[in-house]
Amino acid sequence: MKNLILASTSTVHGGSYLEYLKPQLDLHFKAVERLIFIPYARPGGISHELYTSNAQKFFNSLDIEVVGLHSFKDPIKALEHAEGVFTGGGNTFLLVKQLYENKIIAPLRDRLYQDMPYLGTSAGTNIAGVSMQNTNDMPIVYPPSFKTLGAVPFNINAHYLDPDPNSKHMGETRETRIKEFHHFNNVPVIGLREGSWIEVKQRTYILRGPHSARIFEATKLPYELPTDSEITVS
Amino acid sequence: MKNLILASTSTVHGGSYLEYLKPQLDLHFKAVERLIFIPYARPGGISHELYTSNAQKFFNSLDIEVVGLHSFKDPIKALEHAEGVFTGGGNTFLLVKQLYENKIIAPLRDRLYQDMPYLGTSAGTNIAGVSMQNTNDMPIVYPPSFKTLGAVPFNINAHYLDPDPNSKHMGETRETRIKEFHHFNNVPVIGLREGSWIEVKQRTYILRGPHSARIFEATKLPYELPTDSEITVS
C-alpha cells in the first residue's frame, strides 16, 4: 500500500515554493497535522533549520506543522510515528549519504509501504526509485551506496531537459547520459519534466501535470508518455 | 616532474576530434611513437575497441600509433613502459571504477610524476584532480572511491558552463553545484570552458586557449582568471 507524490521540482519557473502543487498537497496531507520534513539534501548548502523553516512557510497555508527530522534525538522512532513525510530537494549524494548514516533507509521504506502519505521533490523524488543513479547532481560527498528506497520499480530523472538543438555546448545531453546508464543497468528511467509529478497509489503509477514524460527502457528507443497515463514499465 | 595537457573537451563546437589542439599535441607528443590510450570512459557506451580506433584516426595525422590499454594482458606493466598516455572523455564514474578495478590509479599517478607526456580530455582531465567530485556526469556505476590521481592540487570542472540568464529551468547552475561542493570540501575548483586547457609543466599550471577560467575557492567569491595566466590556487 503506497500513497506518494513524486514531483520533478519544488518550484516551477515564475512560481513560489510548492505553489503549483497546493491543491494536490491539500488532499494528499488532509489527515496530517504534523509533517516530518527531511532536510538532508540542503540546496545551496543551507542549514537543516533554515530549510525546514522554508518548508514550514508553505505548509502554514495548509495548516500543517512541519518538524525537521534532524531535530529528533531518535529519527527512526520519529519516522515510525510519522503521519506524513516530505523529503525536499538539493544534492542527492548528500541526501543519500545522510539517509545511510542515520540508518533510516529501511525505516523510511517501511513507512512508504504502509500507506503513509509521502511527498518528494527533486532529490526527494529521486530516492523513491531503485537507485539514485539518474540524478543530475554533483558528487560532492561519497555515499556508502547508490541504492535507494525502491518504492517504485523504476528510476526518476528529475528536472528532465530536452536536448537544445541550438546549443553549441559539447557536454552530453540528458538523453545521452541516460542511454549510457542503460549500457550497464536495466532499470527503466522516467524523464520527469519540471511541473510534472508521479502519483503513486498502491501499485499504480500515474503521470500528472502539464507535460508528457520521456520513458527510457534498456531495450527500447525512448518514447513520450502523455500526462494522466499509467506508467507500466518495471 | 609533470608534463600534462588537461583539456576541457576533446572537440569544440563545429570542429573535429582534437583538431583545435593539434599544434600543441604535435609538440607535446613529439618524442612519442606509440601512445597508450585509456578508453574506459566509453562515451555513449561505445566499445573500448571503437573508442581506441577513433583516437587512432586523429593521431594518424601526427604519425603516432595508438594502443588501447584494454588490449594489454598486464595494463600496469604497459603503463610502466608507456612513452605517453591519453585518457579520453565519457563517463567519469565508469572511468574511475575501471581505474580502480584494474589497479592502475597508483601506476598511472607515478608516471604522471615522472615527466611522461599525458593528455586528458573531459573525464580524462577530471581524473588528474584531487577527486572526481566536480564531474558533471551521471553516476551510472558505483566506483570504490571518488579520489583520483591528484596530479594537480585542485579539481577541474570540465565543460564549464556559465548560468543562462534566460533559462526557465529550475535545476541548479554549475556555479551553485560547485558552491555546494565547497560547503563540504576545501579543494579549489577550476571551471574550465570548452576550448580551454591547463598546461602543466613541473609544478606550474598555466591556463591556455581562448577563454578565461572561473576559479572557485572555498573561502572566496568565484572570480575569472585570464587565459595564459598561472593557476596558483592549492
From TrEMBL, chains A, B:
Pfam families: Peptidase_S51. This is Dipeptidase E. NCBIfam families: PRK05282.1. CDD domains: GAT1_Peptidase_E. Keywords: Hydrolase, Protease, Serine protease. GO terms for molecular function: serine-type peptidase activity. InterPro entries: Class_I_gatase-like (IPR029062), Peptidase_S51 (IPR005320). GO terms for biological process: proteolysis. Belongs to the peptidase S51 family.
